[in-house]
Amino acid sequence: MSLGSYIVFTKDDGNWWSRFLHKDIQHCFIAEPDKGLWIIYGKSRKSVDLYTVESYSDIIKESVILKAEKKQNARGLLMLNTCVGQVKQYLGIRNPFIVTPYQLYKRLKHEIT
Q1: Which residues of 57-95 are buried (b: 16+ CB within 10 A; e: fewer)?
Q2: For residue 26, what are the domain limits?
Q3: Is residue 113 part of a domain?
Q4: Of 18, 25, 48, 62, which sees the most CB atoms within 10 A?
Q5: Rounded distance, CA 98 to CA 85, Å?
Q6: 10-13, Cβ contacts within 8 angstroms, sequence gap of 24 or more
Q7: At what angle do helices 101-112 and 83-91 cross, to 10 degrees?
Q8: Residue 71 DSSP one-character state
Q9: Within-domain flag for 24
């Protein structure tokens, strides 16, 4: 049984499009606890990142973290191949108008409250 997924929102690493995004929330990825480790899954500019870390302190520097629940069988037909698209597909969020990490953050924050 999974303990749940956490969506981590961070600053970007200086891509040219970062200036058009929220100043503190420019990138997102998934962190999921598993058997004493943290599985990290996210989309970067050039590749898909998938790795494990022993301590979550390695990944949360200057980050905002929200716990999220996956929805069963709620895949959208079309997702952009971005960090937001990957997280939306993982969580089963079908809203096509969520395209930035800050929009995704607001949606998840709204679901929590």
Answers
A1: eebeeebeebebeeeeeeeeeebeebbbbbbbbbbebee
A2: 5-107
A3: no
A4: 25
A5: 9
A6: 10/62, 10/63, 10/64, 11/62
A7: 30
A8: P
A9: yes
Q: Total structural domains in the chain?
A: 1
Q: Cβ(11)–Cβ(64) under 8 Å?
A: no
Could you read off the pLDDT of 57-106 as tens digits, one per residue? 777 777 888 998 877 666 666 778 899 999 998 998 888 899 999 999 99
- State pTM to two decimals: 0.84
Rounded CA separation 50/59 (Å): 13
Could you give the count of Cα atoms lying within 13 Å of 14 in the half-sphere of its Cβ?
0
Q: How many residues does the chain have?
A: 113
- DSSP, collapsed to helix, strand or coil, labels residue 76 as coil
DSSP state at residue 49: E
Tokens of 91: 């969580």
pLDDT of residue 105: 96
